[in-house]
Design goal:
Layout (H helix, E strand, L loop, with lengths): L11 H4 L13 H9 L14 H24 L10 H10 L20 H18 L15 H6 L15 H8 L3 H14 L5 H12 L1 H4 L6 H18 L15 H13 L1 H7 L16 H15 L4 E6 L6 H14 L4 E5 L2 H6 L4 E2 H5 L18 H8 L2 E5 L6 H15 L9 E6 L13 H6 L12 E4 L10 H12 L4 E3 L2 E2 L12 H12 L3 H4 L3 H8 L19 E9 L3 E2 L6 E8 L5 E7 H7 L8 E5 L2 E4 L11 E5 L4 E4 L12 E2 L1 H6 L5 E10 L3 E4 L6 E10 L5 E8 L2 H10 L5 E6 L7 E3 L1 H10 L2
Parallel strand pairs: 1-5, 1-6, 2-3, 2-4, 4-5, 12-15, 17-18, 21-23
Antiparallel strand pairs: 7-8, 9-11, 9-13, 10-11, 11-12, 13-16, 14-15, 18-20, 18-22, 19-20, 20-21
Helix pairs in contact: 8-11, 13-18, 14-15
Bound molecules: adenosine-5'-triphosphate (ATP).
The site of adenosine-5'-triphosphate (ATP) has 15 residues, from helix 15.
Amino acid sequence: MQDYFNLNLLHFAVIMESIKRTSKERVSCREYYSYKLQIREHEKSVILYAGRLLHQYVVDMYVKIETSRLDFYKQNQHTIRSDLYKGIIDSVAAGETQSNNTGKRIILPPSFIGGPRDMRRRYLDAMALCQRFGKPDLFITMTCNPDWQEIKNELKPGQTAQDRPDLTTHCLNDASNYQMPNALRQLFAILLIYCEPTNVLQLWNEYYTDLSHDYQAIKDISYDDCVSKTLLDINLFLERMGRSIDDFDLPELPHVQEIFHDLNDELNNREISEERNVITPAEDLNIIHTLNSNQKNAFEEIINRVNQKRHGIFFIDGPGGTGKTYLYRAILSTLRNEGHIAIATATSGVAASILPGGRTAHSRFKIPINSTETTLCAITKQSGLAQLLKQSSIILWDEAPMVKRTAIETLDRTMKDIMNSSISFGGKVIVFGGDFRQVLPVVRRASRSETISYSMVKSYLWEDIEVFKLKENMRARTDHLFSEFILRIGNGDEEEIEDGLVHIPNEMMIEYSNNEASEHSLICTIFPSLCENFSSSEYIMERLNLMESSNLIKSLSLNQRYWSITAVINQIDAVKMFKSGQGKIQKLTLMDKEGSKIYAIMFNETIDKFHNMLQIGKTYIFSNGQIKAINKDFYNVNENFEIILNSISEIQVAITDDIEPVTNNLSVIEDIKSNPNSPSDIILLVLNVSEVRVIYRQTDKKKFVKRDLQVVDLRYVIHIILYFFKNILLFIILCFLFLIGQKFVLLLYGKDWQQLKVNNWRIQEMIKQSF
Ligand SMILES: Nc1ncnc2c1ncn2[C@@H]1O[C@H](COP(=O)(O)OP(=O)(O)OP(=O)(O)O)[C@@H](O)[C@H]1O
């Protein structure tokens, strides 16, 4: 090869006369310099060791190639229909003032890379793509650091990074370091298309671990499934760019859809994987050997029904202590151990927490709080929860008599819908349990007969239910006296000493002598040998139920993490985004049965978790979270704390709903500006009060007295409120009301938000509500 380019250089094949002479027989300028810049294993190129001179050389040769291409189009204007563009010259001649448009115009075809027509074509292509697929998600620019080890490894002896501008593989390393496998798969697809790497398979092998990092973390996934899942994702990205994985030298993707149909269901369904990961306590597996005869009958019938895939609705009926929970544990452990999905629920959170993997029925099945004869659970057929219910073998629902029958019927209708079946509960095996002697459904302001009409025995489902009675009191074996007493109370057999009051047997009571001694005696009875046992979690857990839990807001203490309160939601503020756009916040106002109020604040994921289940006027059990000191300047509650609901928090629908909500729509002025016609209460703090001034209305020259208030609202925004009045007396009253540093509630709605004007009627509201 010659050391310089000239127009008469012939292609090697032409010289060897192996191909026919054509117009393409000569080596083009671009071909010549591409050849010179190529890296060859056994050929030492001076140019490639020239450091910065190499860059100079590349730029010079680029200009040379570009000039020769431009030269070509200059000589061949007649072949590119440049006459079409002559009108442009005329228009320029008519009024063009730009200097760069003077001189002789050479028209460049769109095939001239970098020319205006090429750029315009690319721009239009890009716009068409954006129109079709939306804005691009990813715009990657890379800055290369010559000190990177990956680049140094590729250098030949004596070379520096300047000698090798072609090294770009570092970008994959960058992405893999951030461990974003999905982004990495997308980048991999982009590189395949735009960078055309020479050895795709090698690149795949090198980065496979990073590309499939998330799939490898899935429990029990096989190597083949992991590879296929990764390739499938890459293929998806390639297809979006008009290519396919078959176009590249990558492992084959056999029968992808079939492989992943089942796998996807399991992998992508968080509900199913969570349910499958419930840990069965080892001791529960041995329970079946200790069941008494009643428990055994029920156990065998239920397990058989599941194994035979026949439907059945059961009710385990037994007074307290007859071993209902014991039986559920036996059923759950046996079925889960055999690979079945068993869903454990209970009406109350306490009962649910005793069952392994237990959840409250309302939250598990998304039963609406106001269930009626026609309601359905908030479960869509395509959702993960629907898949879980479809695949489950059995559903357990403890404390069923405590819930309104309409909630159970709602689940029945939903299951029929999900299973596309007219059989009760879609043909699933359902086991209810509980004791009708214990708490019946709470129906607000209902008479005794109305309450009974809501009991599950009055449901259309009851006649299909097979009842198993547990009679032997297993608790009585250890505490005969107590269990007999509880049974008598439940059956209504215990004699009343006064209207609705019974006498607690003396043997079960601690005699009162004086405060100190009796308290000591109570503690010693509940916590015998406390000093030896205080570190035993079992000992403490067994006694926890005996501890008083008031569930009142006033029982909360600063920085307490684990707590529980029963409260009605008085107000749910709108979700507000942070100014940065990153994150959101929502505030609830809660009130307990004593009327104490507290704010509960939720952020981001906590909002997503609870937002849909919360309703104003409903009572919930809120547990766990952060208890923080409140900023009292602005808040309209007497409490000292506010609650931050976080990842450890739980909210359950309370069975009692006897707390009357108090609605008090405290907002900030911004909210009212956006919705001026809906009146709203605002709490404001007076910062400043102006002097009294007399003003005359322009139209009729009527006299008013006026004052300006400088106030600040809950969001620390300062506003000026102007109030004016004809009635001097009321005006004077207001003057006393608005003192600096005083808080007041104002009912506001209106139109003129430049200055908030207060008219007669609003002021009266204000007096009524001020405090
Ligand atoms: N077959 C059994 N063998 C040994 N102990 C048992 C058996 N069945 C139940 N028990 C024990 O009896 C006690 C009461 O049982 P369990 O809590 O299951 O009753 P329950 O009917 O659910 O009561 P409640 O309605 O009050 O919740 C527990 O301590 C349990 O371990």
